[in-house]
Design goal:
By secondary structure, this protein is of the alpha+beta class. The chain contains 10 helices and 18 strands. It has 3 domains: 196 residues, no CATH class; 98 residues; 149 residues, Kelch-type beta propeller (Neuraminidase, 6 Propeller). The termini are far apart.
Amino acid sequence: MKKLNLLIIILIISGTLFAQEVVKEELFKVNRDSVEFVNYEGPHDKFETADEIRGIGISLGGKSEQLSGTRTYNNKYSILHLFDPEGQGLLNGDIFSIEKDAVVDHIDNVRRILSGYLQTAYSYSKEDSDVLAEFASYYNAVYRGNFEYFISAYNKIVTDNLDSEKAGISTRYMEWPGNTQILIPLTPGGKMAIDTISDNTVIEDLRTQDDKGIEPRKDMVELKEKDIEAEQTKIEDKKEVILQKESELQAEKEQLNNESENLSDKEITSKENIIAQKEQILNQEKEEVKKEDVVQKERQDAVQKEREQIAKDENKLIDQQSKAGVAAKTKTSMVPFLVIDKDNSDYMGRIALINTETGEIEKKSSINTVRGRRYYLLDGKLLIVSGIDKAPQSVRLMFLNSETLEVISQGNYDVFADSDVLINGKNIYAVVRENDSWYVGKFNPELKLLVRSNQEVLSHTPLQLNKGILYAQLSNGKIAPISPDTLEGMGK
């Protein structure tokens, strides 16, 4: 009897642990296209590969049944696993925090960390982890600041560890460090459900996008198909168990019938009651499996309809692109313009191409950290000062393609964020930093620093060329003539 009780306890514990799964439908129920993240797009003085960033999440992981307490990574990121097996049907959750010393500045990297964690902790494939991480970011952005929602949806063990000011994720990267608690919703012990990913509201909104949301919709469908296949396998296993139980129950009935002459009425009644109870439970199981079968059939039909709709939308998109190609033959004149981000305290901007006929923006550069109020032209390329002076970000000179606005090259030396820029022939002059001091620097057309001045200058100094002499204001306030070739002072 003790062995039986121990076995029951083990089964209960293991069932609780291994049933911890990410609630896909909770992540997928939000409208992903209602959220637009503002990321840092500019130079860095340190680069990490996608695999290195993903490795942060992997190091925070470990199998879900082994997770407990808080796991941290270099005091920059942490995961808190919170699970209440008696949570009355509410969600459990993992809380991923971006700590104040973190330097992550792009939502793609947040997703890479989350994906690595999900893959390790919950044994998802890399592809599925990527999709889940993407939707986790949208989900947490949508519910950012909605603490009443978190209280209504999650177990107390989760909300007790949430800060109402930090729960979720801001859409602006500047607000992430020390101010972010990303929730990964976990079931109280049930299946992984993804039906709401194909909610009509979400799908129709995706279809309004320029690309009709083709790729994310395909991702959704593939996830649902895999989920349906997994659920159908479970159903077939249940059917096999039911058949076995039916066979055993029939054998019990026959045995009772054969033994009835040798049993008392009380014994017969007792055995009949046991058989009746087993039969009742079996009928309930059969009814439940029947309902599950119907649900999976309906889900499969919905997936097939969505696949057909995707195919139709792809054909429409191809037709639209073909027509757009014909229209593009009549080329419209466009001019570059520096569009300022009015919501940014530093008023940084990005280069855009403006349609001269309509005034509409036709294209934008990915770089959104252009400093000052100007760009410069050199050999048909756009020269800008871009970036943020905070490691691992940096401020550098950059060249953009004047037609595609893609980055051509990036300087190799730190430049003052509000530096004046002077172009003289093929040479480029700007204020550069060495340690904590500022100097005039001369760059070649490849944006490599050739030489710097031997005198310190004010970071905000104008750079002026007059009759072959470069003038700049020194750190002591004096105006100094400087050789434009050697950048050595020419004064006495």
